Amino acid sequence: MKDLSLWPYRPNVGAVLFNAAGLILVARRADMPNAEGAPGGWQLPQGGMDAGEDPAVAVFRELEEEIGTARAEILAEHPEWLNYDLPPELIGKALGGKYRGQTQKWFALRFLGEDADIRLDLDPHPEFDAWRWARLAELPGMAVPFKRAIYERLAVDFSRFAA
Length: 163
What we know:
This protein is of the alpha+beta class. Helices cover 17% and strands 30% of the residues. The protein has a single domain (4-161), classed as Alpha-Beta Complex (Nucleoside Triphosphate Pyrophosphohydrolase), CATH 3.90.79.10.
């Protein structure tokens, strides 16, 4: 195996989307449809950034692509870029096989739309096949193990927006 310290992180943005009741949008990965209660089956909207793209612009683009709407406003930007490493079995396979993991800029956003605005069926190859509102405190338990530390951090750092 190659020295992973030489592999780059993929730049990424993530959205912690709060509704008016202080709950967050979580979505079930389409490639894990039987993972209803399993860690990792549910996650927050997130995605890669284009070269030179501003993170605040990218987060709205990702919302539009992944959940069909960008009807939201930014409440806060996490002050740090948060990194995670892929587990060994995914190195060279996930993220186009070129990255050791991701470096992520996270945003807390307030959803300004209606539930009917959330459309997972607009993308011909959707990343998600279901979504729901959840308590922020539930988030770490939904994460795959290699993302759990980031979700734990978000649950603390964005708790002021939660129900």
